[in-house]
What does this fold into?
Amino acid sequence: MNQQRDIDHALTEIDENIHLFERTLKKRTDLPEVSASRVLALSDGSNQDESVLRLAELVADRLGAELVRRELGPGGGEAPLTDDRDRLPFEVLEQIDEQSIGLVVLPTPFLEDYPSLGATSLGVVADVLLARSPVPMIHVRQPLEDPRAVLESGVLVCLEADPETRRAAAWLWRLVPGPLQVLVALASAEHHAILKFSRGEEQPVTLEDIGQKLGEQISPLLATMQERARQEGRRVEGHAYPDELREVLVQESFPLCLVVVPGREDPDHTGPLARECVRYTRGPVLVVP
It folds into this structure.
């Protein structure tokens, strides 16, 4: 009796996977084209500056773009946090618009990286740019020993396959020539909010519910990326983690590579997903609005 129940369960799973595969084939879509004619490298006097410049040079070369440099105020990161410094992110936003900047690489250090300032977190410039930048931005949290090696593989961290996620996947594809991963953290609080809103009810949401919904959303994007990977001799893998995203990002086994995460179209709001990635990932993080 138990054996028959196991067989029936296995057949049900196979049937569900076949239907998911069929739906995936119908929904599969191409990645959008992405480009940038100018890459802006920002420096602030922190120990990330050299890594930012080397990474920006590599990115500009891969995009065939002009490299533009800017120091964030006199004295870089050693400058006191005055009203002048508070205006810096808005001056950078003006420069992005006036000079047709298509991508920005910037240091996003901890204040402990500045010898003259004693604190543990920073957000004066990067926080505003993270929320309001109209173009992709690569945040560099730590000095990189080998920026070129970091760009040889990449991870897309996402919640769902919305337009922002597809743009993020396109940027990852454009900048990273090596193996790619698509990472979905199932335990994200944002997933629970999304599911409750879509259902119009307040009943408890399980990881099984989330996994089923995400399977339908992410599979078409993953199928598109894997098909292109086969044509170009590359490798794309998809992973779902039941842990909190922070726990995944801080693991020693998490690859030191370019992490790409979608932002939000709303200029006044960037979800916790992008902020978590920027805060906890060892390697550079590209946030794509």
Q: What stands out?
A: Strands lie at 38-43, 66-71, 103-107, 137-140, 154-158, 180-185, 236-241, 258-262, 285-288.
